[in-house]
Amino acid sequence: MGQGIAGVAFMDIESLLDRRAITPKVSASSKRQALSLVAEMAARRFDLDAGEVLEALLAREAAGSTGVGAGVAVPHARLKGLDRMRGVFVRLETPVDFDAVDARPVDLLFALLAPPEAGSEHLRALARVARLLRKADLREQLRQAHSVDAVYALLAQPASPSAA
Fold first, then answer.
1. Which end of the chain has less Cβ packing within 10 Å, N or C?
2. What is the chain's alpha carbon radius of gyration, rounded to the nearest angstrom?
3. Which among 16, 37, 76, 86 is annotated as catalytic?
């Protein structure tokens, strides 16, 4: 991990995401179904209850959409049963309405799941993922990637330090 201001480590995507938490092509017909797919993947991969994960993600969405624009959503929740921050990446075959800030449908979801006690680490991870997915060329490459390894390689590129 790179070092940031005052020795705080930059959040590297590879510390959040492993290959078994990536689905490069899946179908969903709604925001709820897309979040349900994320919840099911998280439950299998991190030994969580899919219903609890979905409930936490939907509760967060009720507070305001995590659709950040340009076809990207960063759903997130705090969950008991996690020992550290975890990520799940899903690319939808067909974008779904996500009530995003730019009203565009979403096809790239990078969900972040944190233990209840995660404080600034949770916020740093959200910022890192949002910064990464603001890159138009990366979003397009993710949309063209057809394998888990290709998606992982794109997302796990080393973080470049920034003033953000």
1. C
2. 15
3. 76
